[in-house]
Amino acid sequence: MQLVVTQARYSLMGVTIAYALLLHNRGSLAAQDVLVRGIIGNGGANQQALLDGFFIGETGLPLHAAVALAPGETLRLDGELRLAPDQIVPVPMGDRSLLIPIAAFDTAYQYSDAEDDKGRTARAFIVGQEQEPPAERLAPLRFDQGPRQYRRPAARAAAELPPR
Fold first, then answer.
1. φ, ψ at 141 (rounded to 5°)
2. pLDDT (0 to 100) of residue 164
3. Which of 38, 105, 116, 129 is least enclosed, having the fewest CB within 10 Å?
């Protein structure tokens, strides 16, 4: 699972992250009845609680569905996640106010006709801005400069549940 952030913007509607989620079937059997759930939240003090609730299935919304993903095939799923204004928790850093969105996706699928043959892959990503030159860590999104479209949005994997 890979996340490509195609656009990140802050407006009166909140923070919107447009993305392409790439799913690749590394197995020898087709993944069938693929369902992808997702969530977006704030990085910081409460991020572990957000991810824990999401990974055990208490939170998140269904975002995408696919009939099948053949062995070796990669599927691109485009969408948007939105953090409403009342959900944004900026991180103060000196005289700046920063935003560190966390996006998480959980993909469930069936890989045979047997009821117990279900698989799952889940991953969380930190969203920010690519630095110049690119570095391992992303720069956070500036929140204190008013509504804007961020120039170099990107994501880095932050946590993963191993495929099963």
1. -85, 130
2. 60
3. 116
**E strands in the chain:** 2-11, 14-24, 31-42, 61-69, 74-83, 91-93, 96-99, 101-110, 118-129, 141-142, 148-149, 153-161
**Domain encompassing residue 33:** 2-161
Using DSSP bridges, classify how beta strands 74-83 and 61-69 pair: parallel, antiparallel or unpaired.
unpaired
Look up residue 95 and give its two tokens. 């005289």
Find the largest Cα–Cα distance for the chain.
57
Domain count, the chain: 1
Between the alpha carbon of residue 123 and those of residues 1, 77, 120, the distances in Å are: 7, 15, 10
* Predicted TM-score (pTM) above 0.90: yes
Residue type, 135: A
pLDDT at 159: 82
Q: Is 148:100 a contact under the CB 8 Å cutoff?
A: no
Indicate the DSSP class of residue 47: H
